[in-house]
Every structure is written in C-alpha cells, then in structure tokens.
C-alpha cells in the first residue's frame, strides 16, 4: 500500500509518518492488515528538520516537493512508475495554510486550502487500482468551521457543539475547511473514494518555533519554559480552550483510517463524513500549573520565565470559541481520549529531549501500586475495580470514583464520608492508556477541596481468560484486602452483518469480551466481597 501525506514535512505530518512506520500495516477496503510499502511525504519545501530518525533511514519513505495548487503535482504523489496499484492507496491530506496566515493572505488560503483540496480529491478519484479497492482519503479539518461570539451566531461559547452544529466560520481558514468537508462527503457519496474527515482541536505540544495558528501560545506555554526561554503569553491565563495532544490527534486519524468501511458508513453515513476528535478544555494557567508540578523543584530555576502581555482582541477571539464538544461519533470509531496534562508534557519531553534545558529534571511519574504494597489497614477503605479503564466510559467512571462520586461504604448518597481512603483498580489490556487514566484520576483527586486519599492499582489483564482474571483478583486481595464495587465495563463489538453471515470468530470475540469477561470477573468479585 502507498500512503501519501500532504503537509508531511510539518510537525503533525512527521508524527503521523513515524507512527505509520511503527505500525507497518493499515486498512485497504475490507482488509485491515495491508503492509505499508511506500510512505510519500509531500510538502511545499524540503524538510528543514527531521524530528524522527526513522523517517530518514527508512527505505520506503520518499519526499516529493511541490505545490498542491498544481494538479499535476498532486497526481504525481499518487501515481508513478514505482507505485503498485494492487496494494491500495491511502491519502492523509494535512497540507493547509493556518488561520493567522489565511487571514493575512486570502488568495493563498483559497489556493492552498480549497484548490489544493480539490486537486487532491480529483487525483485520488483518477487513481485506478486494479484490485478495485476504493482509495481511503483522511482529511484534517478543524473546529474553525464553527463560528461563535457574534450575537447572530447559531451558538455561543458556552454551548455544547457537535458534528451536527451548523458551520458558520468566522475566518477564511475555517471557510475553506468547511468547503473541504462538503467536497469530501460528496466524493465519498459518489464512490470516488472512501472519505473520513477529522476536526482537529488545537494540538499541543508542537516543537520548534510557533506556527501561524491563533492559539499557538498553548504550545508556547510548555515549549519555551522547558527550553529555558522566557515567554510572554498574549491570552488571558484563565481562558479555557479545547485541545488535544499530538499523539491523540495522530491516533485519532489512524483510528478513522483503520476502521472498517461498514462501521464508518454506519457511524458517519454518506452525507457527513467528518467528526470532531475528542478534546479537553484547558487554560494557559492549567498548563502552567501542570508544568510546575512535574518539574523537580531543585531544577525549576532553569525554567524559562512566564509572563502575560494580554492582547484583548486575541483573548476575545479565543474566548468566543466553544470548549464543550460532543465527540461521540469519533468515539464510536475508536478515537482515543485526550491524555492528562502531565502525560502530554512528559510525552513531549520524551520525544524531543534536545528541546529541554539540560539542567531541568522531571519528578518521577506516578507509578502504579504493585502487589507488594498493601493498604488493607487504610482508614475507611473502599475499593472499586473498573475494567476497560483505558478510555471512554471506563476512564470517565474511574475519574468520577476518584473524586468520591459514588455511594461510599454505606451506599447511601453521593457525599463521601470523612477520612475515606479510595482504592481504584484500573484494568485493561494496554498499559499506556491505563497510566493516562491513572494520572487523570490523581489530578482529579488532587483538585478536590478536601484532598482525596487515593491509591490506584494499574493491572494489565485479559478479562476473557480465567487464569488472567484469577491473577487480577489475587493482586487486588493482596493490595487492598477487600472489594466494594466491580464495574464490568470491558467489551467489544464487530461490524454489523446479517445473522446468517456472522463469522464464528466475530461471535466468539463478542461473547468472550461481553459475556465471558463479566461472568469471570463477577465470580471472583463475589468471592472477594464475601
């Protein structure tokens, strides 16, 4: 399979290309495991700085310099003598002129964002794989398609917005992105390609210099201090803004690419192929506080100094942006939630160590409780297990539990008794998202007026396996000695199919994940509760 990434030389494009190389396979039609044999990075200029060594050393990565305003260049990205059309094609169209630059130069924004989109769609339409597999086209749109702040707008900043919110952009950038969404849906409806669009919130933390986005300061508040550089921020520190991490943004785009055509059609339908990715409402002050909490105080003097030189016009623009976003359709397609702020900052430090001042040191990340620790004698201890705690409902429930949002030992009411110690056991297959949930639980507990006494236990387990479940509950018993609540949240689904055509492997997958896991965990829970 050939993968084409426009704007691939930029930050997000390089993160995406690097992740695709790690995975090695993507979806093409009904086949979810097609090897990636070519990654074509298209950009308007040569890559100034490679952020990941793998992109320089990989034999399947090529760079093609050109302008998406040129239809022949777009066609060359998809078709050349080296392309095996039988392998399929996936296009990630990221190339665009950002909001600030778009307002400064209308013609540039129209040519790159609108004409360039049309050229890439048409080039994909003309691509004719002999296998008859329709190419996949993933489009990076933005929340700028939605306008608010004007008295006559359909929504205001305090409203909850969703994929069904009417587009009324306030900028040329937002207008061109909205037009791109309509084009994507119509090309997809007609069967020219399989279009899937993601509305990206502000993405942090971007390395290097600030980009032309209106909200680039949400990266600057982390990036510059970590490099030892002073920064004056132009936006009121208490204004909330919807954002996500670069890892979650890329994982969201890949979730949209890898989901089956049947599920994509079920969720997105034929006429609106773009969905909001999950985000989190965060202020500059929130980010500044998170940064101060993870930097070792002994080295904090190396942090660049943060001041505020507030631009009222810019602050008013940001204040007008809605921050409550319903991303249920993206969730249904497997898009991950936004990680906690500490996780976002630590990830940036790990991925770009050369951007961090050499004298700065981070405090150790919160480690999960191990089975050798025990809290059996903790006062007023109540313990909950949440399976499938790495995302979605499981994560949200675990965070709520961490703030005392349950009945407590008596089961009466939702006000936690005084001096309660909470034990939350986070269970799932993959550790990374569980650690993110753990950090969010710790942050939620710390935010309470009366600091919550919280102990978290992270366990990687296969809840469909009797031996794995037995080991899980043995760890819980060793650590806490009791159990008060089990939330059987883990589950799985498969693409819809007529009953007579459901494969046995799909049947077993659903029954094991949804029924067997509940039986095994409930059986062990009753023993521990007795």
TrEMBL record:
Keyword set, alphabetical order: Carbohydrate metabolism, NADP
UniProt keyword Plastid, yes or no: no
Cited SUPFAM superfamilies: NAD(P)-binding Rossmann-fold domains
Domain of life: Eukaryota
NAD-dependent epimerase/dehydratase domain residues: 3-240
Keyword NADP: yes
The protein's name in its UniProt record: NAD-dependent epimerase/dehydratase domain-containing protein
Lineage, opening ranks: Eukaryota, Sar, Stramenopiles, Ochrophyta, Bacillariophyta
